[in-house]
Amino acid sequence: MTQTLQVHLGDTLVTIGQRFVDAWHRAERGELTPDAPERHIGFANFELFAHIMTPRRLELLRHVHRDPPRSVRALSIALGRDYRRVHEDVEALVNAGLIDRHGTALRADYDSVRLETRIAL
User: Fold this and answer.
1) Most exposed of 7, 9, 33, 49 (fewest Cβ within 10 Å)?
2) Residue 4 and residue 108 in contact, taking contact as beta carbons nearer than 8 Å
3) What gap in Å lies between CA 111 and CA 48, rounded to an integer?
4) Residue 5 pLDDT greater than 80, yes or no
5) For residue 2, what pLDDT band results from cuts at 50, 70 and 90?
6) Range list of β-strands (E), 1-121
7) Residue 15: phi, psi to the nearest 5?
8) How many whole angstroms separate alpha carbon 96 and alpha carbon 30?
9) What is the edge-to-edge ordering of all strands in the sheet holding 39-43?
């Protein structure tokens, strides 16, 4: 089953509430189940997302998706990067909801990211 992570930038409380109510109704109709879940995360604005999702972190995220490491140390070795920097990147991505940690193992159990943004001018 293909999983898409839906990332929302700049949502208001109204749009978040509407998405929740919509999901509730779809769950009542049986469209959302443990076997067919949706995963959403949000960032207050594009700038915050860009601060979290740097090119190095995107490279790290892709590696975790392709070959989930058993530890941060194993990931730093696989990437050929300093452990401390990889640890900082992993913490940022875990805290943002882009990587899941199971014990010491790291996972990114989705196949694509759908980015929806609202930019106030």
Assistant:
1) 33
2) no
3) 23
4) yes
5) low
6) 4-9, 39-43, 100-102, 105-107, 112-117
7) -70, -35
8) 29
9) 39-43, 4-9, 112-117
- Pairing state between β 105-107 and 100-102: antiparallel
Given a cut of 90, whether residue 81 has pLDDT beyond it is: yes
- Distance, CA of 109 to CA of 86 (rounded, Å): 19
| Alpha-carbon distances of 13 from 16, 18, 24, 118, rounded to whole Å | 5, 9, 16, 13
| Residue 57 neighbours by CB distance under 10 Å | 19
Neighbouring residues of 85: CB distance < 8 A, sequence distance ≥ 6: 76
Tens of pLDDT, residues 24-40: 888 888 887 777 778 88
44: tokens are 């207050």
What pLDDT is attached to residue 114?
87
Q: Which domains does the chain have, with CATH numbers?
A: 4-117 (1.10.10.10)
Q: Which residue shows structure tokens 């972190």?
A: 57
Rounded-to-integer distance, Cα 46 and Cα 28, Å:
33
